[in-house]
Amino acid sequence: MPHMITNRPAFNTLLLLPFLLSAACAGEPGARLELKPSVMAPEVFERVEIEVNGVPAAANPFDPESITLDLEAVAPSGKSLHVPGFYHSEFDRKIEGKGEVLTPRGEGGWRIRWLPIEAGRHTLAVTAIVGGKPTGQGQTVIQVAAGKRHGLARVEPEGKRYFCLSDGTPLFLNGLCACWYGRRGTQDYDDWLEAYQKAGINYIRIWMWPQAFGIEWDRGDKLHYRQDNAWRLDRVLAEAERRGIFVMLCLDYHGIFEVKPDYWGGNNFWTRHPYNATNGGPCQIQNEFFTSDEAKKLYEKRLRYVVARWGAFPNILAWEFFNEIDNEYAYLKHSDVVAWHRDMGRRLRAIDPFRHLISSSFTGGSERADLFALPEMDFAQYHSYNEKHPARMQAEKSARFYEKYGKPFFISEYGTDWKGWKPDTDPHFRALHQAIWSGAFTGSAGTAMTWWWEHIHTGNLYAHWSALSAFLAGTGIGKAGMRPAHFESVEGPVLPFGVATHDEALIWLLDRACDWPDGAMEANPASVTGAKVALAGVDDGLWSVEWWDTLSGKRITAIEATAADGVLRLQPPAFQADIAARLKKR
User: Could you count the other beta carbons within 10 Å of the beta carbon of residue 382?
Assistant: First the structure.
């Protein structure tokens, strides 16, 4: 893990009148809660935000032992969905002095975020409990339309190699890390997310860490979650949702346990952490974060808040418990870390009504089989830095991790050097290009997710993603049955990679002379001519073959070829560095 220093909806009163009358006439004991949904006729998988007024006061709105607000949504099928509510504050933003400044807008209040997952008539009942006693209720009926939204991220159920959406639509991740903002705060994400959408990028990773989106990390934060950072995350997730971009949300990172400054002179937040006994927390030492019953209880309360506030975002790909937790194994015991992931994974699964995926991560080059083998971990991941030959590395890791765990796998951080952006070692961005493109041809669930996002944005290097997006459009990437291709023979100086079913294949040929760092300084590599590959395990008969330029994302030529005895023999046109093909049985 490298380090870098770096509205409320308007409501239509006339539309709300039937809803408010229903809540007012329900006849529940205690206060009558006034409910104002952002959408009165939502579609399936359309997030609905409900402002709840009239909630009784409590000593601490962030502590569920003090107060809870919960929604029980009963669907037409009879299934009941339990959704926790959360305390919320609004802010206005501006750039002032050294960075983004947030100014509170009005007083805080209560919200519930609900995501309908089936069409038809839903009965919604909201209950407030203070000090263990019901103190307010409200209810209504909302009609949900079918719509055309594809739903939430899931593990593809047949092959379990890729992700898909609720309706079965394949979800191959084409993305990068974008873990925190710089000086301009959330306005950085305004620019980045717009660029990502234009490039066909559909995935990013965000950290809830002290210098960006963390809500409980400093002295005084225990059960008093930072509303400014929570608002920032609201805004970024909503903008990502609007642009069709999925997010893996990392809930914590290793630096909360460190006491010594690292390579960059920071990332040592244990002395300030609210769970530290010196700050009034339950942990005398760092490892007690994972073993102390009181610490686990505190963390479970935070999980409830996280689920309540962000669980209804359909573009949450996954909750990631920790970034590179083994960075701090000088203070932590691995077996306790694994047991904690098992227990917290079960707890998170139990309270998340939308069943988002769950994972965690280790340092570059680390593999911890006992954690990824947990049934509570839905997929495995790997961080790669300073490794040569990114395409071959990705192929080897994808095959081995899938064989070991039978779960989706992708490289969730990639860089040529963990110490910094080093374009002098990759002046033509071949390592970057090969890490991105090889993910689609090695059985990985996504591209290698590159680090150094600010430099990528400054250099406007998005063509590598947009070209891949154009190539993959309309293909079967990620569908059930797609697996790494088998090449019976290879002629010429090329490394072949591919994924295939019996009637479709995607292949990518890399010039061995340009397999980074080989040929890294060569601006104009010699053309590869006369290469041949034989793709095995396909249906006999006539196939369409489209050869694509991987830098422009455009088709070079389209021909036909005939497969015989389960083998399709291919000869690409002359190319430099790499070339890709889309193959389809006629």
Answer: 25
Cβ neighbours of residue 259 under 8 Å, at least 6 residues apart?
A: 268, 270, 271
Range of the domain at 163: 153-472
Q: In what order do the strands lie in the sheet with 80-84?
A: 31-32, 133-144, 120-130, 67-74, 80-84
Please give the Cα distance from 117 to 46 (Å, whole number). 9
Among 472, 501, 525, which residue terminates a domain?
Answer: 472
| Three-state secondary structure string covering 153-190 | EEECCCCCCCEEECCCCEECECEEECCCCCCCCHHHHH
Give the CATH number, domain containing residue 527.
2.60.40.1180
Question: If you ran DSSP here, which 8-state letter would residue 526 be given?
Answer: P
Of the candidates 546, 586, 581, 582, which has an alpha carbon nearest to the alpha carbon of residue 563?
Answer: 586
Tell me: do 102 and 41 sit in the same domain: yes
* Cis peptide bond upstream of 517, omega within 30: yes
pLDDT along the chain (586 residues), means of 10: 40 32 43 93 98 96 98 97 98 92 95 97 97 94 96 98 98 98 96 98 97 96 98 98 98 97 91 98 98 98 98 98 96 98 98 98 86 97 96 97 97 96 96 98 98 98 98 97 97 98 98 98 96 98 98 98 98 98 97
Record the pTM.
Answer: 0.94
Closest CA to 467 of 580, 553, 548, 547: 553
Residues 77 and 158 in one domain: no
- CATH number at 209 reads 3.20.20.80
Q: Which helix (H) or strand (E) holds 478?
A: none
**Vertex 253: Cα angle to 247 and 255 (nearest 5):** 150
Task: Name the strand (E) or helix (H) holding 223.
Answer: none
Q: Within this chain, do residues 189 and 129 fall inside the same structural domain, yes or no?
A: no
Cα separation, 251 vs 304, in Å, equals 12
Tell me which of 101, 118, 144 is where a domain ends.
144
**Rounded CA separation 46/43 (Å):** 5
Asked if 68 contacts 308 with a C-beta cutoff of 8 angstroms, the reply is: no
- Asked if residue 103 and residue 203 are part of one domain, the reply reads no
Which residues have a Cβ under 8 Å from the Cβ of 473 and sit 6 or more positions away? 200
Residues forming beta bridges with residue 583, ordered by sequence position: 505, 545
Strand runs labelled E in 120-263 = 120-130, 133-144, 153-155, 163-165, 170-171, 175-177, 203-207, 246-253
CA angle 351, 345, 4 (to 5 degrees): 105
Is 5 among the domain residues? Answer: no
Q: What are the Cα distances from residue 360, in Å, to 28, 159, 255, 319? A: 43, 22, 15, 8
